[in-house]
Please model this.
Amino acid sequence: MILGNLMGSVIVPASLVLGIVAIICPITVDGMNFFVLSRFFIIFAALLFFFFTKTERLITLREGGVLVFMYLIFLTTILIGIF
Model:
């Protein structure tokens, strides 16, 4: 229940702000490469997070390290793609 409230409190304001901005001035997206890569990493991170919390109902230091390492891989691929 707490996770749903937390996600809802982040998603709803972000969606409302983005929707209002899009109504005022339409948003154009040039390339979809960044979004495809981001979607892959978010889905993979969410799956890992739920898998890690299901095992012992907590995230150990090693599992947290795996999530941080995956985030660093994501940042590296984004930065390499920009340059």
Observations:
- The chain has a mean pLDDT of 82.
